[in-house]
Amino acid sequence: MYAFEYHRPTSVKEAAGLAGKAEDIKFLAGGHTLLPTMKLRLAGPANLIDLGQIAELRGIERSGDTVTIGAMMKHAEVANSAEVKEAIPALAEMAELIGDPHVRNRGTIGGSIANNDPSADYPAACLALNATIITNQRKIAADDFFQGIFTTALEEGEIITQVSFKVPSQAAYTKFRNPASRYALVGVFVAKHASGVRVAVTGAGSSGVFRVTDMERALSGNFAAEALEGVTVAESEMNSDIHADAAYRAHLVGVMARRAVQAAVARG
Amino acid sequence: MTTVSLTVNGQSVTADVDPRTLLVQFLRDNLRLTGTHVGCDTSQCGACVVHLNGQAVKSCTTLAVQANASVITTIEGISQGGELHPMQAAFREHHGLQCGYCTPGMIMSAIDIVNRKGNTLDEQTIRAELEGNLCRCTGYHNIVKAVAAGAQGMAQTPLQQAAE
Asked: Which domains can be identified in chain B, with CATH numbers?
């Protein structure tokens, strides 16, 4: 790991102030992507701003048809939250599928979303649950936030403070894990809202997380796995690597989407 | 250098560290608590698992400075008065180890599983919960038996849980 200057602010304002002053900064959330990347010297920020001591970045709150989660909430906290389990059980189940128990005790929702790993789970949840990403500067719709692999709408020095999810009437997440890394080879989050159905896919797309509008249209008419028969995603838009080629991923998107709908319907 | 103050196995510790010092390096190199192992060094294998404020974490993927003001328990901190912790005793009884390299992490994870899931654990639960701990000897069969027995043992020794 390259040397860096370490900062431990206790408020978002102080963190943003540090980010504005210091050169070459990175924010440290749970550190379960950033620290391995720094150990490999693929990242070497001069200044590391630890968000771990900022109380205002924590908490989970339900209000009407939204659940709002503080950016520094850990995956295990979301998975075990009574509010999340009651309002959006699919979201709690998704958090329980991230990494392993130790990773879930450190990794955070804000870190996952800011990083936008093409195989991360939270970006799919954000798109399917019509989330709003709240930063210290503005509110960004999930549809506008994820802009490609490891790319988001965040500006330099901008800090995610909360993520607000719309409570669906029915939802489920299904994940086909890479057997070695446990990341999503394909993960599909399906959610039925009053405004229509949203289907979001992670792990598969060559440009990162994406919505499948053909599936959304089919399911908005009939929220049942049968409605997805014959609805496919384009192989040309799928990622292809040593773990799975594009054709396999495209096939898996269909399979996992049908299973997600079945699970959502079964939950009622 | 950054000052870090924390409690390790019940002892208060304050030190000036290079901020890039990993928690596992701090435990092993500064405090000479070498029971916590570095296996893969890439947050996969779990040989480095310690408890941070009562929760199992991978100390190879945590900076020592992130553990400031926290309470850390390592494998050296779980026995009491010369008596093995029930989970350690169960690993010995059931031969839950082969080379032993993964054992400290396995035991720290196992205690965490019991803390979260209770004292009666079926095989499926144990195997799923041990997802973040790898045994390169592939000695999982006896490890799973040891965790189940250790979980029962912890129910009979309530004092041991207070060691956290």
From this structure: 2-76 (3.10.20.30), 86-161 (1.10.150.120)
Those residues whose C-beta lies under 8 Å from the C-beta of residue B155, and which sit 6 or more positions away, are B119
Mean pLDDT of the A209-234 span: 97
Q: In terms of DSSP H, where are the helices of A116-160?
A: 122-128, 142-145
**Which domains are present in chain A?**
5-54 (3.30.43.10), 58-267 (3.30.465.10)
Question: Is B58 within 8 Å of chain A by CB?
Answer: yes
Query: Which chain A residues have a beta carbon less than 8 Å from that of B62?
Result: 31, 35, 106
**What residue of B is the nearest CA neighbor of A48?**
B19
Q: Taking CB atoms and an 8 Å limit, are B109 and A101 in contact across chains?
A: yes
Could you report the per-residue pLDDT of B102-157, keeping only the tens digit for each? 999 999 999 999 999 999 999 999 999 999 999 999 999 999 999 999 999 999 87
Give the pLDDT of residue B159. Answer: 54
Q: Strand, helix or coil at B58?
A: strand
Cβ of B131 within 8 Å of Cβ of A76? The answer is no
User: In chain A, whose CA is at the least distance from the CA of B44?
Assistant: A181
Instruction: Give the tokens for residue B114.
Output: 């019991």
Listed in sequence order, the residues at least 6 apart from A28 whose beta carbon sits closer than 8 Å to its beta carbon are A34, A35, A48, A49, A50, A51, A52, B63, B66
- B3 → chain A, closest CA residue: A6
Q: What pLDDT digit, counting tens, does each position of A98-142 carry?
A: 999 999 999 999 999 999 999 999 999 999 999 999 999 999 999
> Nearest CA to A262 among A227, A209, A222, A225?
A225
In this prediction the ipTM stands at 0.94
Cβ–Cβ gap A6/B19 under 8 Å: yes
pLDDT single digits (tens) A175-213: 999 988 889 999 999 999 999 999 999 999 999 999 999
Q: Which of B62, B68, B132 sits opposite A101 (nearest CB)?
A: B132
Q: Is B72 on the interface with A (CB under 8 A)?
A: no
